[in-house]
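tool=predict chain=A
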Amino acid sequence: MYDRAVDLINERYLKIDEFDAENSLLLAAEAVEDAIPWLVVEPAGEDISLRHGQRGEFALFEPALDESEDLVIELERLEQTIRSSPYPIPDDVDLGVELLRGVSRALDRHSVVMYRGRLQRFDERIKGRLTGVGSRIGMDDGILTVREIFPDGPAEKGGLKAGDAILRIDGFSTVGLSTNQSVERIRGPEGSTVVLSVLRGEQEMDLTFTRAVVRIPNVTWHRQPSGVGIISIETFSEQTNRGLRQALSDFKEAGPLNGLIIDLRGNTGGSMIQACRSVDLFLTEGTVLRTEGRNGAEVRNLLRRFPARVDGDEPEVPMIILVDDRSASASEILAGALMLQDRAVLIGERTHGKGTVQMRHNLRPGDRETRVEMKMTVAEYKLTADRVSIQAGVGLEPDLWVLPAYFSRSGVWLPDALEDRRNNPGVIYVDERAGWRDGEGISRDTYLEEVAERVLTAMPASAGWGRADVLAAIEDVRPALAREEEALIRKTFSFRGIDWQPAPAPLIAPPRVDVEVTVVDPPVAGEKVEVRAEIWNRGTAPLYRSRIQLTADSGRLPWDNVTLPVGFIPPGASAIGSVMVTLPTDSPTRVDAVTPRIYGDGFSSVALQPVRLRIDGREDPPLAATARISRNSDGQRQVVLDVENLGPEPLSGLRARLALPEDTGVELLAREAALPDLAPGAKGQTAITAVFPDKLPDTQALELRVNAEGRGEVLRLPVSVPLSGEPVRVEPPRVTATLPVEAPVGPHDVTIMATDDQGLESVTVWWDNDKIAWREGGAIRHRLQLPITIEADHHVLTVKVVDDQGATTYASFHVQGGVDGGAADALPE
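tool=predict ok
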């Protein structure tokens, strides 16, 4: 595999000048570090330190890379160095695959090594085929439910309906099975049969299907009463062109079209050749696409040029393509080629920006369990004969921007506050969700389709069907659209008493303001808090449409990208804007630097001094559980669960659920069971019935999950229950750390304490995603003291503790650097 992979990189990788072979070795070692619990990898100058997390360094790997061909030798040597360590490597770790995964990280983000499940999913996406019954299933409130029926497949022919609840597969209960486990049972060899017991309404029925190779639909279409056809393409696979042809054929049979809308929103790409064939359905001449490898050279076994051909049935109708920021790759080929060939206009948002081509290469042949492939960037594509490229991260700008202003119980999100690079005109429309005012709100998920249809139906009968004709219609329709939405935006703001009148003229000088941002309520994880911004207008001119937008240094925070609308503020006055923000239930205690920026009509936005906003974490209540297998009064086997509240707070609304981590043939006959409310120190009991096959090991592996009202999932533990009826007690390990929430820059020592009721197996520690320590267990407590360095930034210490029963606890401790820290957390003695 190493020879093959390195040869491919040297011969074909598009950005070979950016490939750093020495860095790829470090990344390869770090990929193995992710797979082997005890391994810690650290750069040591130009060398790589390989050490056991507890016992220290066992090798200092010194790369010897004079030429790129030496990378094969160095990978083999690195593998042998790791393999020859005195410590065991887990049986499920394929060192060669992991090392090459690391090497692929030194390429661009679109180049990856694929193996097992990921490779299988990629195959299905590109081919658009699978062997099964032809349906899409998922979990709805823990019940396996049919989401979609594929046309012309066994499911459709056999009478399966969307919304059916699947109770049993070949007589086997689906309770406790994951979606993937259920899919594996439903799929099987072509020509074999499967029986699904389904519940439809109140009727239960058994349906028998013969498995077959079915097409995964990715093209849907319908015709509007206005005579406009709408086609949605989910992805580009080997089935896409067939679906598009069928859609156009159906439209043709139904009568003349007044226009065509192709919806590519959310379409992240797929097959390049299928995208080219889709473009060709609408063109009679010209070059759809060119591919160019290094220095513009041709790439072996890759399409060099795709010319449009005359088929004689190209639809002569005006076209609009809907795009957004997730429209990428093959989507941009279709949208960009038709736009540049003056065949279509784009409406929506700027596309993603991916102008490169990846080819898949076999690194190791074999079956679905052993085959390894690498998908690698080998070329960039250029649209039309003029060789227009899709710039990475820039994408295609729509001819008409159509952007939502979201209103909800959490506040408002305004797209113009993001200052996108826009050269073309736009419309901002209201999408009001529940909670902004009394009532359900007005969701407008189909607004883009409505705008496109309005443009197409506004075209005069004498107009042509080219791009220029549609652009002219947009200019005719857009002013009315903008006026309608402007009035609706002002009305929607008025529901909360906000005066959203526009500025009559730009400000001559920048605004003079003071701003205070505060969190009004105690910022406890899981609670809803009011975030408030008060703006004082110190200038001599009014402020119009003023608002504060918050940006957090660390993403995925509840106040990142939050907008606090204030509106009109006269000179010398102040006004308050506020929103309700729900803090994540699982958030640890943390303080984050949040930057307010003031926006308004008639002036450029201004960044203000950062503020520090805090979340007080709320730990999961400590619980313990005892499980045993017994028989109920009807003689059925059941799993009896005793749950104990070890914490100081009462818990209510408790429900226990069992899952099957492995498909061993055990059937759970109930999905979940209620537990009584638990006062501190109290125990509660419940039972879930099950059917056990005759042949089973001495113990059955289960996963116990407990949910509590207002807290979500508070316990998830593996438990191996003896079939003999002997009870087994499980309790998750606990973790504390002496890391303050805020601390000055510089070196610090952090002490970590991990404890368990029976015994620890291992403790792993990461600092800002870098593994820094591993300790093996053997006792009921572990105390680690580690040196760390804090910069003027946000840092995360992550600890993973596994006990000797397989129960795992993850804990994250956050620290904001650059300020004096508070008192350290106390450690139990």
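The chain is about 20% helix and 40% strand. The radius of gyration is 30 Å.
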